[in-house]
Write a structure and sequence with these properties.
The complex is a heterodimer. By secondary structure, chain A is mostly helical. Chain A contains 24 helices and no strands. Classes of the chains: A mainly alpha, B mainly alpha. The interface between A and B is medium-sized, with 38 and 26 residues.
C-alpha cells in the first residue's frame, strides 16, 4: 500500500458501500427487456443528467485529457475537448427526432432496422450495424479496463496485471440491473468525479501559485515529455495547434465532434428519456456539469507540466494524473481524485459492455434465431451472462494495452462517424432516405475511413463522409423512396395503424410474416 | 491559447442555443407526449386537449 493508505482504504470502502446500495435498489426497476436495455423509455431529468455525465466522462477524458494537455498543451483543448463539446452540442438534433415515436426502438441497430428495413424480418442491416457496434464498443470497454487498471493499481499498490481483475467485481454490481443499474451507478459516479477533479485542480493551483504562473511557465518550458527525449519548442504548449499543425488538428476536431454526435451509444441514450424535452434538457444540463469537470481537468494537465516537467520513460502520458496525485496531493484528496477516476472507468465501461452485449445478443443472436416463445425474463438473464463474459474477455485483453486512451476513442468515434453520419442524420431529417442509401452510406463510409487510415490521409473521417455523400444521393435517387412505415414515426405527430403494426411486429419478436401490412402500404408510398 | 479557449466556449454555447430553439418548437407543437407543457403556448395545448377529449 502507498502512503496515506488509511485514507485510501476508508474512502474506497465508503464508495463501495454506497455503490452496492444504489445498485441493489436499482435492480427492482429492471423488470422487462426494454427496462434492461434502455430504461423503459421513462428516464427522468436528474438520473438522465447523471448518467450522461458519467458516460461522457470516461477514463479517456479523466486520464487522457490531462495527459494530452501535458504533452501538447492547448492543442489538446482545440482538438479533443472542444471537439467533444461540439459533438454534445449537436446531440439535441438527434434527440429531437429519435425520441418522437410512441414506442421508440430499444437499440441503435433496431432503429436502423425500423427506419430502413421495416418489412424485413431478419434485417441484414440490423445485424451488420450490431456487429460493428459490438466491435467498436468492445474495444472502448477494453480501453476503460486499461484505465481502471492504471488507477486501481495506483490506489492499492497492486500490480497493474492483477489490478485489472478488480474490474470484474465492479461489473457484477454495476451491470446486473441493466440500464437502470448503470444509470444509478453513473449518477453517483458523476458526483464523485466532480468532487475528485475539483480537489485535484485546487491542489494544482496551490502548488503552482495560480493560472497566471502556469501560463507564464508554459511559455518557456522546453522539458521533453519523457526524460531523455527531444526538448519541446519554446512556447509550443500555448499554441492552439501545437505540434500537430492546423490540418491534422482540424481532422482530430472534426472526428471527435461530428463523429461522436452520431455514435450509437449516444443515439441509444437519447431513446431513454421520458420525452423529447427531457432529452434536450438532459443534454443542456449535462453540458453545464461537463464544463465544471473539464476546467479542473485542463488545470491539472497544464499545472502538471509545470510541477513534473518530464515523465519517467516507462510511464505513458496517461499516468500524469496518478503521478501528480501521488507526488503532491494530500492522501485524502488523492483518494478522492483516484476514486473519481475509478468511477469514470467503471461507469463508462459498464455502459459500453451493456451496449456490446445487447448488440451481440439482442441485435444479432435474437434476430438470427428468433424464438416463438420469446420470454423477457430469460432474455434478460442471457444478457447478464453476456455482459459478464465480455467483461472477462475485456479484462484479459487489457493485460497488454495497445494504445493511448484518448487516441483509441478517436479511432472508434471517427470510424462510427464516417459509417453512420448520413444513416442517422438523413434517416431522421430526410423522408426519402432509403435502404439503398443506408447500405451505400455504411459501405462507402467504412471503406473511405479505412482507406484514409491506411494511407495516412490527414482526415479519414472527412474522407469517409465526403465519399459517401454523393454515393448515398445517387443510391437514393436511383431507387424507390422509403415506404411510409419507415419514416412516419420520425416526422408525423400521429402515425397510421399500419405503421404501428409494422413497428410493433419488429419490437415484439413476432415471427408472423409482414406481408399483409406491406401490401397495404405499397398503395400509399410517397413518390 | 485564446483561440483554443474561444473554440471551447463556442462549442459549449451551441447546445444551449440549439436546445432552446428545439424546446420552443416542442412547446409550440403542443404535443404533450413530446414534453409540451402549455406554459408558453397555451392555445395549442388546449386545442389538442379538446381534440383528445372529443376523440374519447
Amino acid at each position: 500500500m502507498i502512503e496515506g493508505s488509511a485514507y485510501y482504504f476508508w474512502i474506497f470502502v465508503i464508495y463501495l458501500g454506497v455503490l452496492i446500495f444504489v445498485n441493489v435498489k436499482s435492480l427492482k426497476q429492471a423488470s422487462t427487456l426494454s427496462d434492461f436495455t434502455t430504461g423503459g423509455h421513462r428516464m427522468g431529468l436528474l438520473i438522465g443528467v447523471g448518467t450522461s455525465i458519467a458516460t461522457w466522462v470516461s477514463v479517456a477524458s479523466v486520464l487522457g485529457v490531462p495527459g494530452f494537455i501535458y504533452k501538447t498543451g492547448f492543442a489538446a483543448i482545440t482538438g479533443w475537448v472542444a471537439g467533444w463539446f461540439l459533438g454534445t452540442g449537436l446531440l439535441p438534433l438527434i434527440a429531437y427526432k429519435i425520441r418522437r415515436p410512441e414506442s421508440p426502438p430499444r437499440t441503435f441497430p433496431e432503429f436502423v432496422h425500423m427506419r430502413y428495413e421495416p418489412f424485413q424480418w431478419k434485417s441484414p442491416l440490423h445485424i451488420i450495424v450490431a456487429l460493428m457496434m459490438f466491435l467498436g464498443y468492445f474495444m472502448l470497454s477494453h480501453l476503460q479496463v486499461v484505465g481502471f487498471g492504471i488507477v486501481f493499481s495506483a490506489l492499492t499498490g497492486i500490480r497493474y496485471e492483477i489490478a485489472i481483475f478488480g474490474f470484474l467485481f465492479f461489473l457484477i454490481f454495476t451491470n446486473m440491473g441493466g440500464f437502470w443499474s448503470v444509470a444509478s451507478t453513473d449518477t453517483l459516479n458523476a458526483a464523485i468525479i466532480m468532487i475528485g477533479v475539483t480537489f485535484g485542480a485546487i491542489t494544482v493551483l496551490n502548488e503552482t501559485g495560480g493560472y497566471a504562473q502556469i501560463v507564464q511557465a508554459l511559455g518557456t518550458v522546453t522539458a521533453p515529455v519523457h526524460e531523455g527525449g527531444a526538448p519541446l519548442k519554446d512556447g509550443i504548449l500555448l499554441s492552439p495547434f501545437g505540434t500537430f499543425g492546423f490540418a491534422t488538428l482540424l481532422s482530430i476536431f472534426v472526428s471527435n465532434s461530428f463523429g461522436s454526435s452520431v455514435a450509437p451509444l449516444w443515439v441509444a441514450r437519447m431513446m431513454a428519456p421520458k420525452n423529447i424535452k427531457a432529452a434536450v434538457l438532459q443534454l443542456m444540463w449535462t453540458m453545464v456539469f461537463l464544463i465544471i469537470i473539464f476546467i479542473p481537468l485542463i488545470t491539472i494537465g497544464l499545472g502538471a507540466k509545470v510541477l513534473i516537467p518530464s515523465l519517467p520513460v516507462e510511464k505513458s502520458t496517461d499516468y500524469v494524473l496518478p503521478l501528480f496525485i501521488q507526488a503532491y496531493a494530500h492522501p485524502f484528496i488523492g483518494a478522492l481524485v483516484l476514486i473519481g477516476i475509478l468511477a469514470a472507468a467503471v461507469s463508462t465501461a459498464n455502459s459500453m459492455l451493456l451496449l456490446s452485449s445487447t448488440s451481440i445478443y439482442y441485435d444479432v443472436y435474437m434476430v438470427l434465431f428468433p424464438r416463438k416463445d420469446f420470454n423477457e425474463i430469460r432474455a434478460t438473464r442471457h444478457l447478464r451472462i453476456w455482459i459478464f463474459v465480455l467483461g472477462v474477455i475485456a479484462v484479459f485483453s487489457a493485460l497488454n494495452p495497445p494504445m493511448l486512451l484518448a487516441s483509441g476513442f478517436t479511432y472508434v468515434y471517427g470510424g462510427f462517424g464516417a459509417i453512420f453520419f448520413w444513416v442517422v442524420y438523413m434517416g431522421l431529417y430526410w423522408k426519402r432516405m432509403n435502404r439503398a442509401g443506408a447500405y451505400t452510406g455504411i459501405i462507402v463510409g467504412a471503406a473511405g475511413f479505412i482507406a484514409g487510415e491506411i494511407t495516412g490521409f490527414s482526415n479519414p473521417f472527412l474522407l469517409g463522409i465526403g465519399l459517401s455523400l454523393p454515393a448515398v444521393l445517387i443510391a437514393v435517387y436511383y431507387t424507390e423512396p422509403a415506404p411510409l412505415d419507415a419514416y412516419e414515426p420520425y416526422f408525423a405527430e400521429e402515425i397510421s395503424d399500419c405503421t404501428r403494426l409494422t413497428l410493433a411486429k419488429i419490437q415484439r419478436g413476432n415471427v408472423t410474416p409482414l406481408v399483409q401490412c406491406k401490401r397495404l402500404i405499397d398503395n400509399k408510398r410517397v413518390r | 491559447m485564446i483561440i483554443a479557449l474561444v473554440a471551447l466556449g463556442l462549442c459549449f454555447a451551441l447546445v444551449f442555443i440549439l436546445g432552446a430553439i428545439l424546446i420552443l418548437k416542442i412547446e409550440y407543437s403542443g404535443v404533450r407526449r413530446w414534453g409540451a407543457t402549455g406554459h408558453f403556448f397555451r392555445y395549442e395545448v388546449a386545442e389538442q386537449e379538446r381534440g383528445d377529449s372529443s376523440d374519447d
